[in-house]
Amino acid sequence: MGIQFEAIKPEIGARVTGVDLTKPLTREQAAQIEAAMDRYAMLVFHKQYVSDEQQKSFTVNFGPIENARGGNITKPEDKRLADGLNDVSNLGKDGKPLAKDSRQHLFNIGNMLWHSDSSFRAIPAKYSILSARVVNPVGGNTEFASMRAAYEALDAKTKAEIDDLICEHSLMYSRGALGFLDYTEQEKQMFKPVRQRLVRAHPSTGAKSLFLSSHAGGILGMTMPEARILLRDLTEHATQPQFVYVHKWQPGDLVMWDNQQTMHRVRRYDESQPRDMRRTTVAGSAMTIEQAA
User: Is residue 126 part of a domain?
Assistant: First the structure.
């Protein structure tokens, strides 16, 4: 029967059946999934009990894996997972939940803010692929918002106001919003702000989307208070229930989303219990400020 896609909401998401991600994809299957990503922006695959290597093999069908360097404060000797995998769990290298006062845990709380993966990089990420290995029993849902639908719903005056604006993104903005201000000089250099368009065009479809993220902390040509009020207003608009899908994780779920047209956040959960979530990220190919307005 082949791969089947069942829409979750008109604005975002589809459930996928008819494919086993523990096995290599054919070119036709990869093309079908990529076309579905353009259409739905986020795909849910249930009961995909992939290994780390299988997850990475699936990921490279859609482009090279992004280098995770510069996206966290975890020291190389403290990393739990191999290269190519982003650890978005609450676990330390010993496999136990991180202490609540640990620097790594406090930094990772920023994932509970609305964001787009790697918007703090000059070339932001294309796709993210998250595999649920151990699901927390309380909380921990992930919410996904369609930035394409949110942009389309704006009035003409607002679109004209924001279409050419350029934002500055940095991990120090998102973490600073939560009171995390403790950085080494090396981290300050690593997290220096980068510029991104506030409205971006999708490279495949040409459809416009809002490029919002908690990493966005300023807009060129605006005072900081003006910029942050505008960004807050747009985020409130873009995360209304009609634009959002809430994913309730089950073990073996694999969720894939297009950072070029979505934003997401994880919700609070019982951090005394283990939550093992492993992400691979498909690297982007261009800076957004190079796109035509």
Answer: yes
| b/e 259-287 (16+ beta carbons within 10 angstroms → b) | bbbbbbbbeebebeebbbbbbbbbbbeee
- What residues does 257 pair with on adjacent strands? 42, 128
Using the structure block, give the residue that is written with the tokens 């982003």.
Answer: 86
Per residue in 211-264, pLDDT tens? 999 999 999 999 999 999 999 999 999 999 999 999 999 999 999 999 999 999
| CATH number, residue 225 | 3.60.130.10
Write out the E strands in 22-66.
Answer: 42-45
Total number of domains in the chain: 1
Residues in Cβ contact with 12 at an 8 Å cutoff, skipping those fewer than 6 apart: 40, 41, 42, 144, 145, 146, 149, 243, 244, 245, 262
Question: Which distant-in-sequence residues (6+ apart) come within 8 Å of 203 by Cβ?
Answer: 260, 285, 286
In a domain, 293, yes or no: no
Q: Is residue 171 classed as helix, strand or coil in its secondary structure? A: helix
Range of the domain at 189: 4-285
Cβ pair 157, 293 in contact under 8 A? no
> Is 290 inside any structural domain?
no
Contacts of 22 (CB under 8 A, 6+ apart): 48, 49, 50, 51, 54
In a domain, 272, yes or no: yes
Whether this prediction's pTM lies above 0.90 is answered by: yes
Cβ-contact 114, 145 below 8 angstroms: yes
Q: pLDDT tens-digit profile of 182-226?
A: 899 999 999 999 999 999 999 999 999 999 999 999 999 999 999
